[in-house]
Amino acid sequence: MSRFTFFLILPIVLAFSGCSSPTLEIYDLRCENLTDPLAIDNAEPHLSWKIKSSENGTEQRTYQILAASDIHLLNEEKADVWNSGKVSSPASVFVAYEGKQLPSGTLVYWKVRVWNENDHASKWSKPALFGTGLSESDWKGAYIGLSAESGDPKCPLLSKSFDVTNKSGKLLLYVNSLGYHEVYVNGNKVGEDILSPAVSQFDKRSLYLTYDISSYVQKGKNDLAIWLGQGWYRPGLPGVVYEGPLVKVQLEKVKGDRRNTILVSDSSWQARESGYISVGTWRPHQFGGEGVDAIRIPESLTAMVWDQSDQFPAKEVDVPRHAVSAQMSETNHITEIIEAKEIKSLNDTAWLVDMGKNLTGRAEIRFPQLRAGQKIVMDYCDFLDNTGNLDNRKQRDYYIASGKENETFKAKFNYHGFRYVEISGLTSPPKKEDIKAYLIHTNYNPASSFQCSDDEMNAIHDMIQYTFRCLTLGGYMVDCPQLERLGYGGDGNASTQTAQTMYDMSPLYANWMRAWGDCIREDGGLPHTAPCPYMAGGGPYWCGFVIMAPWETYVNYGDPRLIEKYYPVMQQWLGYAEKHFVDGMLEQWPNTDYRNWYLGDWACPKGIDQTAKASICLVNNCVMAECYQTMEKIARTLGKPDDAEKYAGQNNTLRRLIQERCFNGSKNTYATGTQIDLTFPMLTRVTPDSLVQKVTESLYIETVQNRQGHIACGLVGIPVLTEWAMKSQAKDLMYPMLKKKDYPGYLYMIENGATTTWEHWNGDRSRIHNCYNGIGSWFYQAIGGIVPDEKYPGYRKIFISPQIPEGITWAKTTKETPYGTLIVDWKLNDGVLNMDVTIPVGCEAEIVLPEKASEYTLNGTVCHRKEPGITVKSGKYTVSYQISK
To answer: What are the b/e assignments for 501-528, b being 16+ CB within 10 Å?
Structure first.
C-alpha cells in the first residue's frame, strides 16, 4: 500500500514524563517570513512564530498579538497599533495582520503569546519589528550618477553631508539603486550586505533596501557616501537608460507614527570616480571582473576629506517610470571564508592558486611589496583543462599598485565562480596565508541535515547541498555563476523540491517569482529565464516554472502568497501554450526575440538522443499534464471550484491522448523508451493502473540491462526519475544507480575531483551547475523517510516512512519546518528498526508501519498493530518495529 493513501487514524498523545508543569517558549518571529524587515512591500503583512514545549502533544489553541508604533508602548494597556485579544486558532504561520491601517514609511513593533490545549499561557515573546516601506508617492529625490564628462561613470562614489540635531527616533535610509551599491556613513560601511540589491527586471521594476543608520550618525555634521557598481545595469539590456549605475536615496527620521525627510538625492550631491573599473560586458562567457587602480582609490570613505578637485556635481538622469519595490528577500552576505590550499609556480611571474573547492564569490589577495604602477592580473576558473592549465572563462580582475605597503585586492561589485586563481605579473611568490576566498550567497537559513551509514551517499548529499550555496546569489537561483548567471526556469523546476527542503528559501522565491511575473508578455508568452536580459534556450518545462514554483513554495513553507498573486500569470501562460496545441496535444512553438529552442530533456549522457522528436513531444505534453494537475490543486486551494473542474477535464483529455499516441503496446514503452520517457507518464498518471507494472518492468530493463545500472537522463529527467522512485519506493533501483562510480554518475564526478555538481555528466563547460541537483530530495524523502503531506502545507502533517536500501544501516535526518525542527533518527539492527522522532509544535506525523509489522513499541510500550500507521502530535518519540525476518 502506498504511504500516500494512508489516513491519519490513530492519534496518540503521550505525556512527557518528568515535567511537573509545561513550559512554552515562543521564538523565531517573522514578518513575511523575514526577520525584522525594515521595509515590506505591503500594508497587510503576515506574521509567523514557532513554539517550543517541554510536553508531548502540545498544541496551540489560542494566541494574542500586540503591535505598537514604539517599543515602549508594546503592552496590553498602551499598544496603539493592534491588540488582537485572545484568538482561538492553531495558526502560527502566515497569520494575517488585522490591526490599524498602517501608514507608509513607519516601524511597527510586535510580540505574541499563546495558550496550549490546557489553557496554559506562554510568556510574551521577545519583541520583533517590521517597517511598512515607502509608497510610490513618497519618493522625492532623483536618480543620480556620475556624468560621463566628469569621468568613467561605471563605478562612481556619490556623497552628501547632512546635519543631525536630535538623535531620538530612528534614521532610516532608503536606497533604490539601478546596479549595485554600498552605503558608508562617516566612513563606516553600513550593514553586512554586499552586491545589493537583488535582481529585478529593470524595464518593469527596481528594488530598494532600507538601512537603520541611527547608530552610525553623530550629533552635528555627518557624511553619507554611496558607492555604485553596474551589476546587471548594462547598456543594451532591457530598461537600462544610462551607461553607468544610478541611485535614488531618501533619508527619513521616524519616531512613532511620525516621519520627516532629512535628505534626498539630487544634483547637489557630489560625484567622483572611485578607482574601481568594471571589466567585461555581463553577457554569456563575458562576465569579466573588476580593475582596481590603487593610486586613485580614496584613503578614506569620508567625503569631507576628499580632494575637492576630484569631485563634480552629480548628474540627474531621467529614468522611465517603473515599479519601485522593497526587496523582499534577504541580502547577500559572506557566509564562509575559504583558505588557499596550494600555490604552484607556473613561471617566474605567474602562480596558480588552488582554493581546494569550488565557490561563488571573491578572492582577497594581499600582495608582496609592489612597485607603483605594477599591474597584477587574476584569472579565475572552476576547473583545469586536460593539460593542467586554467580553462579560460573570461573571468578576470586586475590591480594597479600604488607602491605602498600591504596592498590588498578584493573585488567589490562583481564575483566569480571558481576554484583556481592564476595570478600573473607578480615577481615574488604569494603566501598561502595571504590568500583567501569568500563564499557569497543570499543570506537564507539552512533548513536540513542528512547523514547515514554510507559515506558515499553522504558525499553526494553534501556536494548537492553545497552547490546550492554557489547558485543562489541575488535573490534568485542561477544555472551557473561563471558562464551565464541566468535564472532558468528549467533549472529551477529541476531543483526546487531539493533546494526548498535543504534551505529556507521562501523569500528568495518571492523575489524570483516577482521577476517571472514582470517578464510575461501581453500574449502570455514567457521567456526561459527571469529576469530576462536577453534570449535564452529552454522549453515548456522552463516556462512551467511559473506554475510549479509557487505551488512547491506553498507546500514546503505554507506560504500562500505566490499562488494567490501569480494565479492570473499562470492562467495567462497556459492560454499561450494552448494556442500551440494541435489535435489536442502541444506542438513546438516558435522562437521569439526573448526565447529560443524547444527542449524536452537536456544535458543527457552520451547514448541518449535528447533531440528525438518522439521524446520531446512526450516529455513536453507530460509537462503540460503536470501543469494542469497542479493548476487543479491551486484552484481548489484558492476556492475556485469551476476552474479546478476545467483543469481536471483538460488533464484527463491530455493524458488520454498521450497514452493513445505515445505508448508502444508491443514493448510496454513510451516514445524512445528511455528513463524519462518511461517514468514521466507513470508520474503524471498517464499510464493506466493496469499497465504500471509492465512499464515499470520496462524501466528496470532499460536501466539495468541497456544502461548497465546507470542514471541515463538529464536536467528534466533527474527530478522526474527521483519523484517517481520516491513515490514507488523503488529504492532497489535508485540506490544502485547512485553507487556507480563510472560514467555517468554523481560518484563519477566526485572521483574526478568534483566539489560542486556539473553541467554535463562528462564535466564539459561548467562544473558549478544546477542541472543534476534534483536528486537531493531522495535523501530526505526516501532514506530519511520525511514526506510532507501537500494537503496540509508547510509540514503541518508529515508521513514518516524510511525506505532502507540494502547496505544502509542508519540515518539521521533533520528538517527545519515553518513550525520548528523535525528529526528522524533511525537505526536498523537484526531486522528491527529503531527510530527516534521529534515533531515540532503545530505539526502532526503519521509513522507508517510496514505490512508485516504486527506489533510495535512506542516510548517503551508494546502495542499491537490495529491500523496502518501511528499518528503522533508534537514531542519526542521512540518507535521500534520489525521490518524483516
So the answer is: bbbbbbbbbbbbbbbbbbbbeeebbbbb
Measured CA to CA, the distance from residue 417 to residue 440 in angstroms comes to 10
Question: What is the sign, positive or negative, of the torsion defined by CA atoms of 493, 499, 500, 505?
Answer: negative
Q: How many CB atoms lie within 10 A of CB 74?
A: 21
Cell of 831: 531486522
Are 661 and 653 in contact, with CB atoms under 8 Å apart?
A: no
Task: Find, among 127, 125, 152, 210, the residue nearest to 176 by Cα.
Answer: 210
Q: Among residues 520, 528, 696, which one has the least CA distance to residue 599?
A: 528
Query: Taking Cα atoms as reference points, which of 356, 378, 391, 380 lies closest to residue 426?
Result: 378
Element (H, E) at 360: strand 350-366
What's the whole-model pTM score?
Answer: 0.95
Residue 799 has φ and ψ, to the nearest 5°, of -95, 135
CB 416 within 8 A of CB 396: no
Written as one letter, the residue type at 705 is Q
In whole angstroms, what is the distance from residue 803 CA to residue 366 CA?
51
CA distance 317 to 233: 14
696/703 Cα distance (integer angstroms): 11
The per-residue pLDDT of the chain, averaged, comes to: 95
DSSP string, 175-232: EEEESEEEEEETTEE-SS-BSBS----TTTEEEEEEEE-GGG--SEEEEEEEEEE-TT
Query: DSSP state, 120?
Result: P
Q: Dump pLDDT digits (tens) for 352-374.
A: 999 999 999 999 999 999 999 99
Q: Are 833 and 870 in contact (CB under 8 A)?
A: no
- Show the CA angle centred on residue 194, arms to residues 192 and 195, nearest 5°: 165
Helices 489-502 & 506-519, crossing angle to 10 degrees?
160
Interhelix angle 717-728/489-502, nearest 10 degrees: 40
**Burial level of 411, CB count in 10 A (0-12/13-18/19+)?**
buried
Say what the pLDDT of residue 21 is.
Answer: 59
User: How does pLDDT run across 603-620, given as a tens digit for each residue?
Assistant: 999 999 999 999 999 999
C-beta neighbour count of 155 within 10 angstroms? 27
705 contact partners, CB below 8 Å, separation of at least 6: none
Please give the Cα distance from 561 to 97 (Å, whole number).
Answer: 14
Contact between residue 167 and residue 214 where contact means Cβ atoms under 8 Å apart: yes
Q: Please name which of 474, 476, 493 lies closest in space to residue 716, comparing C-alpha atoms.
A: 493
Q: How far is Cα 50 from Cα 3, in angstroms, rounded to an integer?
A: 28
Predicted confidence (pLDDT) at residue 15 exceeds the cutoff of 80: no
Among all chains, which residue has been given the C-alpha cell 590591480? Answer: 399
The angle at the Cα of 414, spanning 196 to 311, to the nearest 5 degrees, equals 75
Spatial neighbors of 741 by CB under 8 A, at least 6 apart, are: 747, 748, 751
| Separation between Cα atoms, residue 43 and residue 59, nearest integer Å | 30
* Helix spans in 439-544 (H): 455-469, 489-502, 506-519, 540-543
Decide: helix, strand or coil at residue 407: coil
Q: If you count them, how many residues does the chain have? A: 885
As a whole number of angstroms, the distance between CA 786 and CA 75 comes to 40
Where do we find the cell 543594451? 236
H-only helix segments in 520-640? 540-543, 545-557, 561-565, 567-578, 613-637
Cα–Cα distance, 522 to 524 (Å, whole number): 5
Q: Are 574 and 627 in contact (CB under 8 A)?
A: yes
Distances (CA, A) of 658 to 602, 622, 645, 684: 21, 8, 20, 11
CA 462 to chain centre: 17
Does pLDDT of 451 surpass 80?
yes
The total of other beta-carbon atoms located within 10 Å of residue 278's CB is: 23
